[in-house]
Amino acid sequence: MADISASIQNRDAAGDSSGEAGPVEQTTMIEARNLDFYYGENQALFDISMVVPQRAVTALIGPSGCGKSTFLRTLNRMNDIVEGTRHTGEVLLENEDIYDSNVDVVELRKRVGMVFQKSTPFPKSIFDNVAYGPRIHGMRDRAQLAEIVEKSLIRSALWKEVKDRLKDSAMALSGGQQQRLCIARALATDPEVLLMDEPASALDPASTSRIEDLIFELKENYTIVIVTHNMQQAARVSDFTAFFYEGRLIERGDTEKLFTNPDEKQTQDYITGRFG
Amino acid sequence: MSGPEQPTSTPKLRASGKKDSWFFAFICWLATWSSVVVLIVLLGAVTYQAVGWLDWQFLTSFDSRRPEKAGILSGILGTLWLIGLTSLFSVPIGIGAAIYLEEYAPDTFLTRIIRTNLANLAGVPSIVYGILGLTAFVRMFGLFGQEGYLSRALGVSIEGFFWSDHYNGYLIPLPFGRVVMAGAMTLTLLILPVIIIASQEALRAVPPSIRHASLALGATRWQTIWFQVLPASIPGIMTGVILSISRAIGETAPLVMLGAMTFVYFAPGDVDSLGYLAEHPEGLVKAPFDTFTAIPIQIFNWVRQAKAEFKNVAAAGIVVLLFILLLLNAVAVYLRYRSSRHLHW
């Protein structure tokens, strides 16, 4: 507990919430309403209702298999590619149901980018990796592509390290650099929401801290939802935290409140390490 | 576990362990080099017999009843047409089928039957494909022609397409008859299972995370396959294609079954040079529907001849066949290298 509180203290000291008790609830970006989700016969999510505020970091925590990753993947319909999945309820992106039959999944995924746990650079050059998104969406202009690649790499704090070797293979980068490249690649399609599935769990502490700093900067412009197993990390980077357990949303609220004074006993037990 | 099993004697680093591994390495060394030696002896013997027979005259003449005048030109041209058409049919169909089975097909009873039976098809003896090709492509189930079922049932006999005096008859005869096209289609059926299985394995070797990353960026399924999955699997697919085409080049049995001619002194469609093709572009359509022979068939025919000199002619033919095989393999390996160089693994 002590180090989690310390994390929150540190964050406050960094000048995030200027004297206020907690982050102010902003405009809603994503809202799930009574969402049930099934893998075949197995129900993975039970009646999830939750809001994700704009330009803030929402962390999803909970023990393995609690449904937090499944929930994250419903937000850009990545679960569609798994055979035999179905859902009931709604997921609204700026008040539009993303599961509506006339929603174009391509457009949705352009607006809702995703970064995976394992960095997944394509076996191509650094430039081609970042330019892949804009290219498949029809951009051909070389100058414009170069500009987007530079902007995205600057935003993901990788530009300085790679600007002289954009033509080199992305596979030659270190693990932390690869993950920042994946973030740059996701930013290149100019999304509004960034979903991160344990983006730092395979990285060393130094790279992890770089990613966390990056998340902190990115929330100025993007709505971020991050799944993490690391509660210190959730406490450090997020404004809001949601605790999932056995497919149910147990509690969701200000990160500071949830970690210091949760409403539910299950949350209390989990964050103090009594289970999970 | 039945009670704590303490090791009664701690295993020592046995001295014989070293001898074991030395012995095993020697067996492997023997296996490798014995096959290499056999190959060298074979190549040496064939080349020795071919010396003096493998000359420019041999490469540029048609077959003859006199060994010193016999040449392999019709066989070379027939084999090139066969292989060209076979690749044209089998590569796109094979890769397409593999993509469908790996990337799109739902896991139903039917697709499972197809998947399991591909391996069985790859094991079917080539002569069986020859019988199939004879019925399906050479004779077309006896549907066409003056004596065909259609003629008897409808009173109209269909004998081909595009009749013209200029081309001396039908450009595309029906049924095909013993022509290059029938041979190429038969060889296509023969090697398709191998190409499909190899391509499937190559596609499966591409990590799913690459597909997910591409889809998450808003790529469609087709874009993901075209820009990520296929480029990453092309080296593997090419290996399968190289192996199957090489097999098709050497196949004799199905062609004998189809009735490829053994004594041929013309080029398919009279196309004996690129210059002829430039003057008569209709040769591109004519040649596939002309009768033909192939190098392995010619070799088979020469070996059967009574005159002893034909054994040397056959040896020269074998050297040519091996050379063409090596040449095509070299080209394919180069293409494979080039496509994998663009991948930055």
Automatic annotation (TrEMBL), chain A:
InterPro entries reported in the protein's UniProt record: AAA+_ATPase, ABC_transporter-like_ATP-bd, ABC_transporter-like_CS, P-loop_NTPase, PstB-like
Keyword Protein biosynthesis: no
Main location: membrane
SUPFAM superfamilies: P-loop containing nucleoside triphosphate hydrolases (SSF52540)
Domain ABC transporter: 30-271
Stretches the record annotates as Disordered: 1-24
Single GO BP term: phosphate ion transmembrane transport
Function of the molecule: Part of the ABC transporter complex PstSACB involved in phosphate import. Responsible for energy coupling to the transport system.
Name under which the protein is recorded: Phosphate import ATP-binding protein PstB 3
Organism listed in the record: Thalassoglobus neptunius
Automatic annotation (TrEMBL), chain B:
Transmembrane segments: 22-51, 72-101, 121-142, 179-198, 252-268, 313-335
UniProt entry tagged with the keyword ATP-binding: no
Keywords tagged on the record: Cell membrane, Membrane, Transmembrane, Transmembrane helix, Transport
SUPFAM superfamilies assigned: MetI-like
GO molecular function terms attached to this record: phosphate transmembrane transporter activity
Pfam families recorded: BPD_transp_1
Protein localization: Cell membrane
Signal sequence, start to end: none
Entry superkingdom: Bacteria
Main localization of the protein described in the UniProt heading: membrane
Sequence ranges assigned to domain ABC transmembrane type-1 in this UniProt record: 76-332
Matching InterPro entries: MetI-like, MetI-like_sf, Phosphate_PstA
A GO BP entry: phosphate ion transmembrane transport
Keyword Nucleotide-binding in record: no
Family label: Belongs to the binding-protein-dependent transport system permease family. CysTW subfamily.
The protein's name: Phosphate transport system permease protein PstA
Organism: Thalassoglobus neptunius
